[in-house]
Write a structure and sequence with these properties.
The structure holds two protein chains of two kinds. By secondary structure, chain A is of the alpha/beta class. In chain A, 26% of the residues lie in helices and 35% in strands. Chain A has two domains: 30 residues; 87 residues, OB fold (Dihydrolipoamide Acetyltransferase, E2P), CATH 2.40.50.140. Chain A is elongated, with a radius of gyration of 23 Å. By secondary structure, chain B is of the alpha+beta class. The chains are: A alpha/beta, B alpha+beta.
């Protein structure tokens, strides 16, 4: 009798732990990992800037993963500015690249800022340059 | 004939000088921030904090008429809880339809010549557009100038219903009725545009 009570208590405990874990995962899902997500579109900094500047609302690229490339015109802390006004906030400190270097960046496209005429990207990371681009 | 040619030349030089002065005014006196910070909070005691931060807000100040314009991309607001961030974008703000929040206004009675390290308070009078709805706001801002940097800080309280944002009954108790918005701009002068 005692043993069966113990068993039920154990099962109940396990079920409660399982429910707590599931609730935790549901309520606090892991944030997006852009560096690991699949690239949804690829285009040069110039093409990205032109496409984004022509869209006022419902931009098809916003919140999606973009691969873009171009020459660096400015580096400010963790921010890299590419030619044609593409600004990327990097995940990691910027190292081993400088102004004038051509880089390829994978990032989340946040949107177009018409006040300063800039495409904003965040959660950005460097990927190796493709010589065909 | 020769004399009229000289007069013509002088006019050209005056024209060029005036043009340069004008260009110098326009280019030299704009203040710009590409990394302005806007934080909003609608937390209720005892519940999980409802708070988000955007550190890539742009702001542009023109001392010639004391106008201040600012733009925040809604998708740039980051919450600690990614599910909360998703709900904010999909259900409350509908950021695919309304991807930007804009402000345009004027710092009343401000004089850049007087601005220095001392923090002074001014009224920022303008209109804020969120979800395509414009609302007049008049927050008090703290302004100081250190070297080439103009610092403008302030806060205001907004009501979601003013921007036609509906809070579902099921989460009504977890989200404050009033949303406190704080902004902090460090505008750099003489960058030109």
């Amino acid at each position: 009798m005692r043993d069966s009570k113990k068993k039920w208590a154990l099962v109940l405990g396990l079920v409660l732990v399982l429910m707590a874990v599931l609730a935790q995962r549901f309520l606090y899902p892991a944030p997006r990992d852009i560096a690991r997500e699949r690239v949804e579109f690829e285009m040069s900094a110039r093409a990205l800037s032109e496409a984004m500047s022509q869209m006022e609302s419902t931009p098809p690229y916003a919140n999606r993963v973009v691969l873009t490339w171009g020459k660096i015109v400015e580096i400010r802390g963790r921010r890299i500015v590419l030619e044609h006004g593409v600004e990327a906030l990097m995940l990691d400190p910027v190292e081993n690249v400088g102004v004038g270097d051509k880089v390829t960046i994978k990032a989340r496209c946040v949107g177009y800022d018409e006040l300063l005429e800039a495409v904003r990207l965040d959660q950005a990371s460097m990927v190796p340059n493709d010589t065909d681009r | 004939m020769k004399g009229s040619g000289n007069v013509f030349d002088i006019k050209i030089w005056w024209g060029l000088l005036a043009g340069l002065v004008f260009l110098g005014t326009v280019h030299g006196q704009l203040y710009m921030d590409r990394e302005g910070v806007v934080v909003f909070e609608a937390s209720e005691k005892m519940f999980e904090p409802v708070k988000a931060r955007n550190g890539s807000v742009s702001a542009l100040f023109d001392p010639s008429d004391n106008s201040l314009a600012s733009l925040a991309l809604i998708r740039g607001f980051r919450f600690e809880n990614s599910l909360m961030q998703e709900h904010f974008n999909e259900n409350y703000i509908e950021s695919d339809l309304y991807p930007k929040a804009r402000f345009k206004g004027e710092i009343l009675d401000f004089d850049l010549e007087r601005a220095d390290r001392t923090t002074r308070e001014y009224v920022l009078d303008g209109s804020l557009e969120i979800r395509g709805v414009e609302k007049e706001i008049r927050p008090t801002v703290k302004v100081q100038k250190i070297g080439n940097i103009l610092s403008i800080q302030g806060s205001l309280t907004l009501l979601p219903k003013d921007f036609k944002i509906e809070i579902p009954k099921i989460v009504e108790n977890k989200i404050a009725k009033e949303v406190v918005v704080r902004f902090d701009f460090k505008l750099k002068g003489n960058e030109g545009l």
